[in-house]
Amino acid sequence: MSDPGQGGPQGVLRLGRQAFGPDRLLVMAIVNRTPDSFYQPGVTWDPTAAMERVHVVVGEGADIVDIGGVPARPGDEVEVSEEIRRIVPFVAAVRDAYPDLIISADTWRHEVAREACAAGADLINDTWGGWDTRLGEVAAEFGAGLVCSHAGGLPPRTRPFRVAYADVVDDVRRTTLALAGRAVAAGVEPTRILIDPAHDFGKNTWHSLEVTRRLAELAATGWPVLVSLSNKDFVGETLDAPLDERVAGTLATTAVSAWLGARVFRVHQVRETRHALSMVSAIRGDTPPALAVRGLA
Amino acid sequence: MPATIAAAALCPSPPLLCPQLTGRRPVLPELRAACAEVVGRLLGQDPDVVVVVGPGAATGTWDAGSRLDLSALAPGIAEGGRGTAIADGGRSGVPLAVGLGAMLLDQAGYRGPRHLQAVGRDEPAGACAKLGAELAGSGARTALLVMGDGSARRTLKAPGYLDPRAAGFDSGVERAIRAGDLAALLELDQALARDLMATGRPAWQVLAGAMPAPAPATEVLYCDDPFGVAYLVAYLRPREGEEGTR
User: Which residues of A touch B152 (CB under 8 A)?
Assistant: First the structure.
């Protein structure tokens, strides 16, 4: 990726000690260390339940676990110290249990990212568009990766209010490219940088649909694209579906996004996502079917 | 010169007023009906000109052909998307509130003269009132369509989350409108309004400048916050015998 700002072919993505070619579609399993996240709130608030969730998602084929301690939506203030308390010991515990599992820390704060990386995190997943400008230096210090996202310039934990873009995809592209460039300048290994359009963040449903429709334009930058679609409001609004009825819509969006070039998928439903992505890989011809005997006997 | 405001209508300016933006299901039909009714009453005054006032980035007028660019809010929609919503002679980028006011006039079938006026979101009360007086003093029989919203921080699910000050702020505005005490709108705390994401503040203050004492007769057609944002629809008429020169 000699000149990613000008676009180019997808290259190798390095996470932890592993390297993935552009054909590998990776599942990032969400593990919330929060009492109040939007989907199944508090289900992994208890550390034992959270570790059980890690065992399950690893068994279901997760490549990455994304551990977060602060919900995206507004709510009670979570201080840095509390966020560290919520996720860092857990990162360490997961690292102990799974020496090779890729661990991502879902945080926008460099202080938290630093402690998480010290405890074994391989990737910093910043959903809030580089609000904290020091995340890059932390990633560089630890040889970790960094997700560069587009939140429409919103401060962390705020909702979109009548947002408008002359061209939302162009805004996403420019913003994430600038953040990726900033990360490289801070010393982050370029093969460890991803971009994320951040569906729903600073976007209404029309914007999230447009970003999905034109995801190939983001893949064309050459940077690996991460998408976080799982059970989000744009799926719910599109289908008029409550939170517990959004899996099919999520998987449809997942398949389209994979087809258009996304490489990492942050999800609640690991097994279903793995199946959807395996199907896409087979349709593309990247991986053969697990079994092909039909009509061949 | 005495003011010549024939009547004024107050409407909120959420994008969801625009039917093309909200998908297949009807959204807030009662709010849309209230807006349609109040605009109908306004036009029933047979004004020489309708002045649309709404908050924007800066104070300024927009060509009468300007329309809301729906593609900025909803890329990919078939009807009215991708720049096609801008009428002849208009330029793009008209502020949301002003564009929605123009849309309400279009929906009512109004084809007469219109003046599209943005008022800067940081314009102080005095400047807003002065602008209102200028708009009212044009000599023409003027109908005023004021587009503005109360706090967007009224509930936990509101766009701006819950701010406990929002309820008091909005009820103060409602009280002033119901009483026709528009001077009270000039006393609104600008910094508080900004904190509360109450985007209507400068537009309301233009209204106050356009309809100075005596208090107009007012009627509130809608006052609710279904998405945590305060929406108010109201109709204001100078009291009998007190309307300015014809």
Answer: 161
